[in-house]
Design brief:
heterodimer; A: mainly alpha; 3 domains; two-stranded antiparallel sheet; two-stranded antiparallel ribbon; 4 strands; B: mainly alpha; globular
């Protein structure tokens, strides 16, 4: 069904996939054999097409088929690097999780079909009006789990930090930037568009889950030292921010506030396209770092800005956008999401007011942590001294890779500056998705200024802000030049006046994240391992010190679940002793039971 | 006449269930098939249809002559003991066979709504033959007994088809005959291979083959 919503998602898919495809020209070269490069291209094209078809079909059955094709193709891309044991493991986790999600989706679709007797979207939409409230709740929960698995909502996010980093980088950028967004498409299409607004707890549930995703995602990202894993965890956080917008829209729709519903959905969709762009950009940059240095470990990098100035510049651009710094696109969408919360808090009463206020606070906390996280990612990777031979030998990447990154960096800037125009387009998408007429709603003053609270005097004009920043910057620089007469001294990197600092006693990523590890120790449960090997009591020959954090979702949810499955499987195996006579006996007994069963009825 | 043939079929099936050695089993199978042939011939004589003559002729050639001959041949070629390898001894088998016949009688009586003695007994006997086939497959150890069990089940199905719908369509019947013949050939080959590889054809000892 080609409506504004589908068109929007098609646009998102193609504006991220095209630069990634250009990038892959240089990325794949010299990395794989030519047969494998051809395979990579075939898979890439098929993957992008399958995503495009997922968002443009109008039949549940066909949707499911393309959904599954998309999942399988991305699985093949995750295990593309067959040399690494880790790829196979990551692929395994991914394919199990994604199929659990699909199972929930099938259950939801079959429930819908029972009422509609048709697989067509519009037929189901009209049938959903007559569905009993209890069934609607069940369908909603099934859809939430099903799409939530793909979207990476905590605690269903476990596959994401394994699968995304393991794929080739241009695929990571498409997976993280676009593929997980198809889950948001699913939620908007099936919950908001088809199922319609139900009880108000639907929206609240999504908001709570989204906030947990935000905080958990960004805290784990802060602890991570693998640069692509860090970005994957940050995707969990950003999916949370997008879902905040979606959840708010659902909530406002259920309490009959159409203006706010449309506004929140705009905020969510805006963050969606922004995240697609800057996460795509960051993954491409991380891929360049990996290609140039051969490692993804931040601790082993450092000082890359000298060898790879362009990549560093693009990464900084992406990092600024994802941290929500003006005048880039991340700032606009996070501002809109916060405004949606404030507007909601102003216009509701009682406990909801408090709830929305607290949510806004937690979202702000997320923003702060994201900034810290990307200070770490950029600072420790590109600044400081090189901490290993990997970083020393890095060289700037090929032209096509730079071009791919440049396209996305340009989009980051455009989506920041042209906010009002883009919002105008998004308003139509959001209106169509919610089924609300937006003819008499205004979200902006003119083509440059956003104004969510018309009459309250709160405006945001990104181009004006950009001009102010430039003017103030130039002014400050001029004052500095005019009044500073001292001579500039060029000294060692990050030496801070110390006399002989080398790369071994510099600040590291683990050291940078230590305050956060302590602050969130109730959740991260950090622990240390020390190991001393002594010659004698006085002479310690070697000393190893490790610090780890506990992955509580893995330890307390997934490990017990897996153990349970394995023990059940072992118990079930007892009925398979290998005796053909026994198997024949099973058939015989089944036959007898069936005869008795027929006799009963 | 029908009653006598049915009784003969039943008796030959009982013989099979209490057989201890392979030749006895094959001989009883031959009796059973011969009774089936007689039954089909009887119907053919009364209905005067060419199809039925051909079917009864094929039945005679395949199931009375060729297949038992083939089974004997496999038995000789594999050079194994003639023991069937009983999980359940003949006495208990007989008791169980009685229980099975009673159960199939009840089942048949439930199926036929206007109560007709002869139809109920035909159905009961066919169900009993099928159950007996499964019984042979489960509770006899050698692979040859499993083949025979399958053939017995097939006989039961043939009788069932004739009893319920006056026989399957001609071509289907022919096709089934050839299928049965081919499957006996193939399974015989397998049994031969098994005996060459493991020096026995005791299926009970093949449990290490599971994955």
């Amino acid at each position: 069904m080609i409506d504004p919503l589908a068109l929007f998602f098609l646009a998102v898919i193609f504006i991220v996939s095209l630069p990634s495809a250009i990038y892959s020209l240089g990325y794949l070269k010299n990395e794989y054999s030519s047969a494998k490069i051809t395979l990579a291209w075939v898979l890439l094209v098929a993957f992008v097409l399958s995503m495009a078809l997922v968002v443009s079909v109008s039949n549940v059955l066909v949707f499911l088929v393309f959904w599954e094709i998309m999942s399988l193709l991305s699985y093949f891309l995750v295990v593309f690097d067959t040399k690494h044991e880790k790829s196979i493991q990551a692929g395994m986790i991914y394919i199990v999780m994604t199929h659990i999600g699909t199972a929930f989706l099938i259950a939801a679709f079959l429930l819908m079909y029972k009422y509609a007797h048709s697989f067509d979207f519009l037929a189901i939409k009209s049938a959903c009006l007559s569905m009993p409230a209890q069934t609607r709740n069940i369908v909603f929960l099934l859809l939430l789990v099903g799409f939530g698995t793909k979207a990476g909502i905590v605690p269903l996010h476990v596959w994401l930090p394994y699968a995304h980093p393991q794929a080739p980088s241009h695929i990571s950028s498409i997976m993280s930037g676009v593929m997980i967004k198809t889950a948001i498409y699913g939620i908007i299409r099936f919950v908001i568009f088809i199922l319609g607004a139900g009880s108000s707890w639907w929206g609240i549930l999504i908001i709570i889950l989204a906030l947990i995703s935000c905080l958990v995602g960004i805290i784990y990202a802060l602890m991570e030292r693998d640069i692509k894993k860090l970005l994957a965890y940050s995707s969990v956080e950003n999916m949370g921010i997008i879902l905040l917008g979606v959840g708010l829209a659902l909530f406002f729709q259920s309490v009959n506030m159409p203006y706010l519903a449309v506004f929140s959905l705009i905020a969510g969709l805006y963050h969606l396209v922004n995240h697609a762009i800057f996460k795509g950009l960051l993954f491409l940059c991380a891929g360049s770092v990996y290609k140039a240095s051969g490692t993804r470990d931040i601790e082993k990098l450092g000082g890359l800005i000298k060898q790879m100035p362009l990549t560093a510049g693009f990464f900084l651009f992406g990092a600024m956008a994802i941290s929500g710094l003006p005048p880039l696109n991340g700032f606009v969408s996070e501002w809109l999401t916060l405004q949606a919360f404030f507007l909601g808090a102003f216009n509701t009463i009682g406990g909801v007011k408090l709830f929305l206020g607290i949510c806004a606070g937690l979202l702000a906390l997320t923003g702060g942590l994201a900034a810290a996280c990307f200070v770490k990612a950029f600072g420790l990777t590109f600044l400081a001294l090189p901490r290993s031979h990997y970083a020393k030998e890095a060289r700037e990447v090929a032209l096509s890779m730079k071009l791919g990154m440049f396209c996305l960096a340009l989009l980051v800037l455009i989506f920041g500056l042209a906010a009002a125009i883009i919002m105008k387009l998004l308003a139509r998408v959001a209106g169509a998705a919610c089924g609300i007429d937006i003819g008499n709603m205004a979200f902006f003053l003119n083509n440059f200024t956003l104004s969510p609270q018309v009459g309250r005097g709160i405006y945001l004009s990104v181009p004006l802000l950009a001009i102010w920043l430039i003017v103030l910057g130039v002014l400050g620089f001029a004052i500095y030049k005019l009044f500073w007469k001292g001579k500039s001294v060029i000294y060692k990197t990050w030496d801070c006046g110390y006399y002989n600092m080398d790369s071994r006693n510099e600040y590291t990523a683990t050291a940078f994240s230590k305050p956060f590890r302590i602050a969130f120790s109730f959740f991260l449960l950090p622990y240390r391992k020390t190991q001393k090997i002594r010659d004698s009591f006085y002479h310690v020959k070697s000393f190893a010190y490790e610090t780890h954090t506990t992955l509580i979702f893995k330890k307390y949810i997934y490990d017990p679940a897996i153990a349970l499955v394995l023990t059940t499987a072992k118990a079930m195996r007892r009925i398979q002793p290998g005796s053909i006579h026994l198997y024949l006996g099973y058939i015989f007994i089944t036959l007898l039971l069936l005869i008795i069963f027929i006799h009963q009825f | 006449m029908q009653g006598i043939i049915l009784f003969a079929v039943l008796a030959s099936t009982y013989l099979m269930l209490i057989a201890k050695r392979m030749p006895a089993l094959i001989r009883s199978f031959r009796y059973q098939s011969f009774c089936l042939f007689l039954a089909t011939l009887l119907i053919a004589l009364s209905e005067r249809q060419l199809d039925l003559y051909i079917i009864s002729g094929l039945l005679f050639i395949l199931k009375v002559l060729l297949i038992p001959q083939l089974l004997y041949r496999i038995l000789r070629r594999t050079n194994t003991k003639e023991d069937l390898g009983l999980f359940i001894n003949p006495q208990l088998s007989l008791l169980l066979a009685l229980v099975f016949s009673y159960l199939s009688w009840i089942f048949a009586a439930h199926l036929v709504t206007p109560v007709k003695e002869i139809q109920i007994s035909i159905l009961a006997v066919t169900f009993f033959i099928i159950l007996a086939g499964i019984f042979l497959m489960i509770f006899r150890m050698t692979a040859l007994a499993q083949i025979t069990g399958l053939l017995v089940m097939e006989n039961g199905l043939f009788l069932l088809a004739s009893a319920v719908s006056g026989g399957m369509p001609f071509f289907v019947e022919i096709a089934i005959f050839f299928d049965v013949f081919m499957s006996v050939l193939i399974m015989g080959f397998f049994v031969y291979k098994i005996s060459k590889l493991f020096t026995h054809i005791d299926v009970n000892k093949l449990s290490r083959l599971r994955g």
